[in-house]
Automatic annotation (TrEMBL):
PROSITE patterns: GATASE_COBBQ
The CobB/CobQ-like glutamine amidotransferase domain, residue ranges: 245-437
Protein name in UniProt: Hydrogenobyrinate a,c-diamide synthase
Pathway, per record: Cofactor biosynthesis; adenosylcobalamin biosynthesis; cob(II)yrinate a,c-diamide from precorrin-2 (aerobic route): step 9/10
Source organism of this protein record: Methylobacterium tardum
Keyword Ribosomal protein: no
Comment, domains: Comprises of two domains. The C-terminal domain contains the binding site for glutamine and catalyzes the hydrolysis of this substrate to glutamate and ammonia. The N-terminal domain is anticipated to bind ATP and hydrogenobyrinate and catalyzes the ultimate synthesis of the diamide product. The ammonia produced via the glutaminase domain is probably translocated to the adjacent domain via a molecular tunnel, where it reacts with an activated intermediate.
Cofactor(s) listed: Mg(2+)
Length: 439
């Protein structure tokens, strides 16, 4: 049987969803419950924190990028052998793209599809009773979604708490808990979000501190009692691995590989062989494909440029076997990378790409791609759905269709032109693939 679930969401970004979700996950795990987590939308950092908090894998659930069979299969895998599913939203509860109902990428789509009640995190800094009006708007906005109650975040004082709770009582929304304003609760961040779980100092102590605060300030029994919904038992085999033995770069510079992609490759029988470019390790010679995920190569450009064993081994590997790079991996496959200080570092020169982090510009959004040629991502014309989030820019010419990876459009089917490169066995682009064959 599948476990009941709930969705931790908020009216807007930066309300404290991750703080509250991690606090609940860790506190309930400490009570002996088998907690499984999920992340709504295209986020490759938060699932690692979920895993640290619960001791179990966390998958992304994305109603825009994932077709219903894949979405149901990932939710089913999450809700199996668990006592409770806690999904964490992204942005605001109803924020998504303009698309068909239930396919907008909004958190609300996931709550509605699986019947998971919403625990609404409300940042009440700068407001008192007015916070209840915002919460009431969330309650009434979409009849598909049930708001089980609210958790108040960044409460300034006992008086502030009483005023906010009076407003919530007036609109009939239960207050499930309160977290006082505390700068120590804030997890460290960098330009693409939280500093990664593996790099966060004293992560276990931080998670236990959050769990202590949840025990003290949140009615955990009421939260668990509010869970509900049902996930259909489902399997999906649409994630096709790019090879049988896949050399995967994995360290502080290369870590943005969606957990559902990795799990899908393994489920299909592939073996993943990790190596660390920052430790100057080359891809394993016994592998048939090399995959360079995204990450933070712009923060380690000097070390990567001087990692001669890695660079030489990568070039040797690419002479006869496929190599693919996503976002940061794409930058490393290029000719050069300009860091934040304006210093240019030589990269692998396997693709005719020059990138700059010095000339920062935000690139953000879903990408719907049609492949321009055959490769490890699929056959020419195959449709992929992915996401792009980075500040680096290409400063080299855009390739023509004979050398581009794909024709891309945004979530509203606005053409964005050609993206990425392919040269011999080497391919790459700035977008991270989430799913394929969604048309």
């Amino acid at each position: 049987m599948s476990a009941p679930g709930l969705l931790v969401a908020a009216p807007r970004s930066s309300s404290g969803k991750t703080t509250v979700a991690l606090a609940l996950m860790r506190a309930l795990t400490r009570r002996g419950l088998r907690i499984r987590a999920a992340k709504c939308g295209p986020d490759y950092i938060d699932p690692a924190f979920h895993r640290a908090a619960t001791g179990r894998p966390s998958f992304n659930l994305d109603s825009f990028a994932m077709a219903p069979p894949l979405l149901d299969a990932l939710a089913s895998a999450t809700a199996t052998d668990a006592d409770l599913v806690i999904a964490e939203g992204s942005m605001g509860l109803f924020d998504g793209v303009r698309a068909a109902e239930s396919r907008t990428g909004a958190n609300a789509d996931i709550a509605a599809r699986f019947g998971w009640p919403v625990v609404l995190v409300v940042d009440v800094s700068g407001a008192a009773q007015s916070a209840a009006a915002v919460a009431l708007g969330c309650k009434l906005y979409d009849s598909r979604v049930t708001i089980a109650g609210v958790i108040l975040n960044k409460v300034a004082s006992a008086r502030h708490r009483r005023l906010v709770e009076a407003g919530m009582e007036r609109v009939g929304l239960p207050v499930l808990g309160v977290l006082m304003r505390d700068a120590q609760l804030v997890l460290p961040e960098r330009h693409l979000g939280l500093v990664q779980a593996g790099e966060t100092t004293d992560l276990e102590a931080r998670l236990d501190r959050l769990a202590d605060l949840a025990e003290a300030g949140i009615d955990l029994d009421a939260v668990t009692a509010s869970a509900g919904g049902a996930v259909p038992v489902s399997t999906d085999s649409s994630i096709v691995p790019p090879g049988q033995r896949i050399a995967v770069a994995r360290d502080a510079a290369f870590s943005f590989l969606y957990p559902h992609i990795e799990a899908g490759w393994r489920r299909a029988g592939a073996e993943l062989v990790p190596f660390s470019p920052l430790a100057d390790e080359p891809p394993h010679a016994g592998c048939d494909v090399c995959w360079l995920p995204g990450g933070y190569p712009e923060l380690h450009a000097g070390r990567l440029a001087s990692a001669s064993r890695f660079m030489d081994g990568l070039r040797t590997f690419a002479q006869a076997r496929p190599v693919h790079g996503e976002c940061g991996g794409y930058m490393v496959l290029g000719q050069s990378l300009e860091d934040a200080d304006g210093v240019t570092h030589a990269m692998a020169a396997l693709l005719p790409v020059r990138t700059s982090y010095h000339r920062r510009k935000l690139h953000l959004g879903y990408r719907v791609a049609r492949l321009c040629g055959d490769g490890v991502l699929g056959r020419r014309g195959a449709r992929l759905v992915g996401h792009e989030f980075h500040y680096a820019s290409e400063v080299s010419p855009v390739p023509d269709e004979s050398a581009a990876l794909a024709q891309v459009a945004d979530a509203e089917d606005v053409a964005l032109g050609l993206a990425g490169h392919r040269h011999g066995t080497v391919t790459g682009s700035f977008f991270h693939v989430i799913a394929a064959d969604q048309a």
